[in-house]
Amino acid sequence: MKTTIAEVGKYVGQDVTIGAWIANKRSSGKIAFLQLRDGTGFIQGVVVKNEVDEKVFEAAKSITQESSLYVTGEVRVDERSPFGYELGVKEIKVISGSVDYPITPKEHGTEFLMDHRHLWLRSKKQHAVMKIRNEIIRATYEYFNNNGFVKVDPPILTGSAPEGTTELFHTKYFEEDAYLSQSGQLYMEAAAMALGKVFSFGPTFRAEKSKTRRHLIEFWMIEPEMAFYEHEDSLKVQEEYVAFIVKSVLDNCKLELGVLGRDTSKLENITAPFPRISYDDAIQFLKDQGFTDIEWGDDFGSPHETAIAESYDKPVFITNYPTALKPFYMQPHPTREDVVLCADLIAPEGYGEIIGGSERIHDYELLKQRIQEHDLPESAYKWYLETREFGSVPHSGFGLGLERTVAWISGVEHVRESIPFPRLLNRLYP
Asked: Which positions fall inside the Aminoacyl-transfer RNA synthetases class-II family profile domain (predicted)?
């Protein structure tokens, strides 16, 4: 019976054949232990000398790290293993050998591992992070599909900057200028006017020259937009969605969280509602904490966000930032001209902002005024203004950065480990 490691529990006491690679091995005279992986998981294969043909045992002893093989054996329960099963190996058929595999069980430097990212992905910890990333994506689709959202795909090539910044990657689109998208939001707003509640999931690009553990040049965003949703309605969706994906990982990735040594008690507490602190109160809190350099009107850096987050055991919303700090499209506060109806969601444990969201301006004249105040080319935003000209409604949305969320839930230190092939300030290889 040919199967995968993930499915061996169905065949306890039976012989199965698995296509696998040798992740590691050790042997002691009359017994060899093969650490096998096949992409679905890891299992130990036990080869006992006096129970197999001599050629099989010699193959087990001589096979090298990351060689590929078909291995046949009996599935056995193994309560000592986190996986719960092992394979009593009976036959080995080598498919392809591997000589001088560069990533050995010893310690390697970060740059070396990043240069060999295509191979580093095979390791047990990186495998666990990718499985958690996959579960977050799967749960994202489940949450939004179950709550009446329609998946819409905004363009990656755009003719203008959604947030009016200069941190864009420029390219030529035949005879026109074009940019790699930094957000699909504006297009999602148009889609919400057609479909009510929508979400996108795709790559975004920021030409920001940052080297922090929180930043990538290319990253993936989940961006919902909701017609007839005001700011408070959006906050409820955000906390429900984040709580849902955390629970999904806890329920479906126990083995992977264990491999990473994640303290799951910190995740088990992530339930809605989340605490909130206004920007005004956050400034005062930081001053009280000894941040004497921070003043009202300043944006928060990583140390500021971390200090605020450490006061809570759940993600925390920082609400109502100054108008001058935020993009042109955010709805003004109803009783204050100096702040807007927005919130950033700050993850615990120093992982920073994972969501930015707001109610969007729905008044045509005000949006037009904001575009002019930000010196944006009105011709490029004509289509966006038309979404307010023809039947505008209150609407809200947000964007969740997938890689920061994966890093937080997985407990890995740097976002470069939360995406298969990271693009960093000085890294375009492999």
From this structure: 130-430
The pLDDT tens digits of the residues spanning 183-209 come to 999 999 999 999 999 999 999 999 989
Give the range of the structural domain holding residue 33, as residue numbers without chain letter.
2-96
Question: What CATH number is given to the structural domain containing 340?
Answer: 3.30.930.10
Q: Has residue 245 been placed in a domain? A: yes
Question: Quick check: is 396 in a domain?
Answer: yes
pLDDT tier at 28, thresholds 50, 70, 90: confident
Inside any domain, residue 105? no
| Beta carbons within 10 angstroms of residue 112's beta carbon | 12
| Average pLDDT for 333-341 | 97
3-class SS of residue 51 = helix
The partner residues of 77 in beta bridges, in order of sequence, read 85
Q: For 224, what's the count of Cα atoms within 13 Å in the CB-facing half-sphere? A: 25
* pLDDT higher than threshold 90 for residue 126: yes
Same domain, 269 and 236: yes
**DSSP assignment string, 203-234:** EEE------STT--SEEEEEEEEEET--HHHH
Same domain, 90 and 165: no
- C-alpha 38/C-alpha 124 separation (Å) is 11
* 3-state class (DSSP) for residue 331: coil
- The reply to whether 83 and 192 lie within a common domain is no
CA 69 to CA 94: how far, in whole Å? 4
Residue at a domain's end among 96, 126, 144: 96
CA 62/CA 2 separation, integer angstroms: 24
Q: Give the C-alpha separation, 227 to 237, whole Å.
A: 13
* Contact of 294 with 286, CB cutoff 8 Å: yes
Domain boundary among 46, 64, 96: 96
Q: Render 292-305 in DSSP notation, one character per residue.
A: TT--TTPPP-HHHH
What mean pLDDT value characterizes the chain? 96
* Residue 166 predicted with pLDDT over 70: no
If we measure between CA atoms, which residue out of 51, 49, 46, 48 comes closest to residue 36? 46
CATH, residue 10: 2.40.50.140
CA distances from 353 to 35, 202, 348, 392, 414 (A): 38, 19, 9, 30, 14
Q: Are 348 and 319 in contact (CB under 8 A)?
A: no
244 pLDDT above the threshold of 80: yes
Number of domains in the chain: 2
Considering the domain boundaries, does residue 301 fall inside one?
Answer: yes
Instruction: Point out which residues pair with 17 in neighbouring strands.
Output: 2, 72
Q: Residue 223 and residue 202: Cα distance in Å, rounded?
A: 9
